[in-house]
Structures are given as C-alpha cells and as structure tokens.
Amino acid sequence: MKFLGHVVRFIVAALVLMLVGFLVPGFSVGGFWSALFLALVIAVLGWIIEGIFGRTVTPFGRGIVGFLASAAVIWIAQFIVGGVSATLLGAILAALVIGIIDLFMPVSTPYEAGRRERA
User: Residue 24: how many CB atoms within 10 A of its CB?
Assistant: First the structure.
C-alpha cells in the first residue's frame, strides 16, 4: 500500500505541473509523461539540495529561500526533462503558483513523505 501511495502522489504532482504549465506564461510541460518525469526530477534534485545545504534550503522548505530553491530546481529540471521549457521568470512564477496550489491542496513527493515518517 505504501508503494501505491507514492505512485498516486507522483501522479497528482504531475497533474499539478501540467496545470501550472497551462496557467503560467514562460513555463510549459509537453504532456503527462514529461510532467511525471519532471515530478521525479524535482524530487531527486530536492533530495540532493537537502543533502548538501540542509532542510531549510530545499524546495520543500518554507520561506523565501525555499521559494528561490524551488524556482531554481524548476529551471534546472528543464535541461534534464524533455518536453519542459521554462524561462527564469517562468520558473519563478511556476514556483509561486505551485506554492499557492500547495497551500490549498498539499502534495508531498514520496521523498518528502519518507522524511516525515522518519522524523
């Protein structure tokens, strides 16, 4: 059941990324599979950033530093995932919209959920 929960979280994250790609100028996602792979890349990049700089600097951290880290991760991820394009302003706007959506509909990645369970 735990594995299925992770799969559902990634699917929801992909749908949110597709919605953000539709709403935000300067940020686009080619399709569902690109969005799903983008959600995976964002989770991995967040894990790497957290390992290097600590929890407060990760995209999952709160505040301005977490927001800027989220925008940077989105911008960097476009070079890894095909079908995704983001300008610097588009990445910042995407991070803002994702943050607003997360306020009303929290979506945690499987990595973040694992961190909560261990804490």
Answer: 20
Identify whether the C-beta of residue 59 lies closer than 8 Å to the C-beta of residue 98.
no
Q: Which amino acid is at 33?
A: W
Cα separation, 73 vs 80, in Å, equals: 11
Name the token pair of 12: 């929801």
Which amino acid, one-letter code, is at 75? W
pLDDT tens by residue, 39-92: 899 888 878 887 887 766 655 556 777 788 888 999 999 999 989 999 999 999
Question: Is the pLDDT score of 94 beyond 70?
Answer: yes
Region of 54 (left: φ > 0; alpha: ψ -120 to 50; beta: rest) is: left
First to last CA, the chain: 20
Q: Is the separation of the CB atoms in 18 and 33 below 8 Å?
A: no
Instruction: Compute the distance between CA of residue 87 and CA of residue 74 in angstroms, rounded to an integer.
Output: 10
How far apart are the C-alpha atoms of 119 and 105, rounded to whole Å? Answer: 22
The pTM for the full model equals 0.76
